[in-house]
Design goal:
Distance between the termini: 43 Å
Order of helices and strands: HHEHHEHHEHEEHE
Oligomer: single chain
Number of strands: 6
Largest sheet: 4 strands, parallel
Strand content: 5-15%
Strand order of the largest sheet: 1-6-5-2
Helix content: 25-40%
Structural class: alpha/beta
Radius of gyration: 17 Å
Number of helices: 8
Shape: globular
């Protein structure tokens, strides 16, 4: 009888490679994103690379890729990793984002970055949780994509309430001056990785900081892009 972790976590079929987590059939059955704007990652009209809003007022970042809407099963895998410390999901989540990046590369929607960064946790939250889930994913991705990953460039020097706990009008100001950039990033094309992007306030604040410090461009990589306007 196969070990439980050598079975697909969704359909319970045996896996040839246990670390992949889900079988090729379930991989192909993951909920597909609709046609989304290459800039903000929100739904747009078919065949249009950018939505009307981004044509009028684009975000600071140049491109955004996501694996899924914030829904099952990717939402479940993130939750088990993030709040229950089940790091067996790291290889799967890393692989899903790699496959999405490769697909975007094939369609010429995204360029290879020169540096990979992650949204940092405040040191108190990092201490309580014991890890930064995006850092675990970024280390694997950096190796697979052959891009340097640095954990010491971005820091969160001000603890802030979770975005989802705040009313909409308070979310953006909640993050003002919460982050610092400590490295020389002048002229670099940077990929910023986060697990979930909802309103985009967090990645927008960090993007502005990176561009202010001389980054040539910033692209956003995330596992989930929430397609409804509610909070991160």
């Amino acid at each position: 009888m196969p070990f439980i972790d050598s079975l697909c976590w969704l359909c319970q079929r045996p896996l040839a490679i246990a670390q992949q987590g889900i079988c090729s059939i379930c991989l192909n059955l993951l909920p597909a994103l609709p046609n989304c704007c290459q800039r903000c990652g929100l739904p747009t009209e078919p065949l249009l690379p950018c939505c009307d809003e981004c044509q009028r007022k684009p975000p600071g970042w140049s491109q955004l890729i996501a694996v899924s809407d914030y829904c099952y099963p990717v939402k479940y895998f993130i939750t088990r990793l993030k709040f229950y410390g089940e790091d067996k999901y790291v290889p799967l989540l890393s692989r899903l984002l790699l496959l999405r990046w490769l697909d975007a590369r094939r369609n010429r929607q995204i360029k290879r970055p020169q540096l990979l960064l992650t949204v940092p946790l405040h040191h108190t939250r990092h201490w309580k949780r014991g890890f930064n889930q995006t850092a675990l994913i970024a280390r694997r991705l950096a190796h697979w994509v052959n891009v340097p990953y640095r954990e010491d460039i971005l820091i969160r020097h001000r603890a802030t309430p979770p975005q989802q706990s705040l009313k909409a009008e308070l979310r953006q100001h909640n993050l003002t001056n919460a982050f610092s950039c400590l490295g020389d990033i002048r002229g670099l094309h940077i990929a910023l990785l986060d697990d979930i992007v909802t309103t985009g306030n967090t990645v927008a604040e960090i993007t502005q900081l990176l561009l202010h410090h001389g980054a040539a461009s910033v692209q956003i990589w995330c596992l989930c892009r929430t397609l409804k306007s509610e909070g991160k």
